Amino acid sequence: MKKLSTLFILFFAVSLFAQTEMTCISGNCNNGEGILKNSDYSVVKAGIFVNEKLNGAGFKKDKNGHFFYSNFKDDIPTGFCVYYIGEGVKQHGNFKNGLKEGVHVVMFQDLTKYVLITYKNDKEVSRTNFSLSLDKIKEGCQGDCQNGFGFIANGEEVLLLGFFKNGAFNRGEIINIPNSSSEIYDFDNKEEVKGMYNSNDSESGLIEEFMVVDYYEFKNINKQKSSITVRQDTNSFIVASFDEQGNLKNKIDNF
Fold it and tell me: How many domains are contained in the chain?
């Protein structure tokens, strides 16, 4: 009996090690563009690595299914981030030293339902529900489209959903109706993260692509520094870096 127990424990330990062992499947996961994952893709790091840690545009997923599309500093989500940590479908908001800060937006499968959560040092201090009616799009703004959170049409084919400042769209989703796609921006953030979703139905279900772009200022012009494109349904990634003029320097992928 002891032998069987020992064999079971040994088998379990070997299986657990196989699941947690990380392999660099493309590029340079020490210093460069890389894709790092475990055996079943339940843990993934993809992006720009410096000293074996994500620094720049990246994607990170843990064994609990939580994931982050963000700029990273030493493996820590920094600045504006689109993420999932178990509430809703996705969330977006700002992180400071890996901690949630300010107002974060929770999105759901029901596209008319949103929750606004305000954080201070990663602790929730308030929560507000927001709902919208797609039938009332032509009637104008829903919510506060001057200095708050609102929803409004911008022409015939584009919808703006998010935060407004002095009547101008400041942070949130720009939804393109004909393309069934949306982009998520934070215009106040100099290290801007740009999320691009392209969704369509296929035999395997919903296909989604997401791009994070890390920008930096060069002669008062924002130039992209690094980017990552992710397709979670196929565990496919494209990681790219750019020079100071914004020209492609290097690119890897496993598409």
Answer: 1
Query: For 140, which DSSP code?
Result: -
State the pTM of this model: 0.82
**Strands lying side by side in the sheet with 53-61:** 23-27, 32-37, 44-50, 53-61, 67-73, 76-84, 90-96, 99-107, 113-120, 123-131
Residue 204 is predicted with a pLDDT of: 45
The mean per-residue pLDDT over the stretch 90-103 comes to 92
Which of 15-29, 85-99, 115-129, 169-183 is predicted least confidently? 15-29
Which has the closest alpha carbon to 70: 36, 102, 43, 45? 45
What pLDDT score does 225 carry?
A: 80
Decide: 36 and 24 in contact? Cβ < 8 Å. yes
The residue range of the domain holding 190 is: 24-253
Per the model's pLDDT, the better-predicted residue between 217 and 79 turns out to be 79
Within a domain: 16: no
| Those residues with Cβ within 8 angstroms of residue 221's Cβ, 6 or more apart along the chain or in another chain | none
Contact 102, 119 (CB under 8 A): yes
Residue 215, pLDDT score: 60
The answer to whether 231 touches 41, Cβ cutoff 8 Å, is: no
